Structure formats: C-alpha cells, structure tokens
Amino acid sequence: LKVRVVRSSPPSSQFKATFQESYQVYKRYQMVVHKDPPDKPTINQVRLVPVSFEDPQFKSSFNQSATLFAKYQMSVHKDTPSDCGENEFTRFLCDSPLEAEHAPDGPECGYGSFHQQYWLDGKIIAVGVIDILPYCVSSVYLYYDPDFSFLSLGVYSALR
Predict the structure, then answer these.
(1) Which of 44, 48, 96, 128 is in the most buried spot, having the most CB atoms within 10 Å?
(2) Residues 122-142: pLDDT tens digits?
(3) What is the C-alpha to C-alpha distance for residues 111 and 118, in angstroms, rounded to an integer?
(4) How far apart are CA 89 and CA 73, in angstroms?
C-alpha cells in the first residue's frame, strides 16, 4: 500500500495526472456504498448563476427555483406555505450584501453570491446558494427536490 498526499488546490501535476482515476474510484464507492445511481448529476448539469435580477439565466429560472424552495421547505422543514413564499425566498436566498466583482486575477465567474443550479431532464432539482470570495467559497444554503433525496445531493454539493 502506498499513500500519497496530493495537492488539490491549486491542482498539482500529480492531482491532474490522477484526477480521472480518482474520480472513477469515488464514483464506484458512491454507487456501491451509498447506492447512488450511475446517472447522478454531472458537471454538465450544474450551472453557476449570479444572484442578480439583471442576469437572464437567474431571471428565467427564478420561478422554478422559488417553487422548488417552497417544496423543499414544506417537505423537509415542515414550513407552512406562508413561511416559504416568493418574498421569503427572495429575502433569505436572493438578497445579498455582497456586490458582484470581476477582478482580473479572480475566477472567470467573478466574486459575489451565486445559485449553483443542478439540472436534470430540463428542470432544477437542487440549488446550492454560495458566496465566492477571494480566499474561500462559502456554502450558504442548499435545497433540493425531496423526490430526488436518494441522490444525496447535499453530500454531492459539499464534495463538489
């Protein structure tokens, strides 16, 4: 048995060289131990959308996200419909004190608040609300469609 510590951030050459093999081990583990289906969401099904009513993707997915939030809150947290309406959703997960910023040496998406949307068959099944800052990513909240709880999207999102 040989154990190596491989720097993942910033990615070292060893990390890059073994990424696919490590991913395949992770995927097999998730399928065998956690009974994840082989068609669990992939990176192509995840969209990072700036939290801004000026952004076309955010605007076009707002109603779907707000509806999913209400379904999650009522199912998982037993909230009443009045506790998780559109205004509550906006106040809790869309209004942010962070201002969007695009630094020349920063990430392509910039800094600020984002909704990391998980799409499957043309519909949003989970949303991770995150803040991307110069030295960290902060996970603010995650909500998902309870019909897809078998996918362990909270765990997947945290690992991603």
Answers:
(1) 128
(2) 889 999 999 999 988 888 999
(3) 20
(4) 10
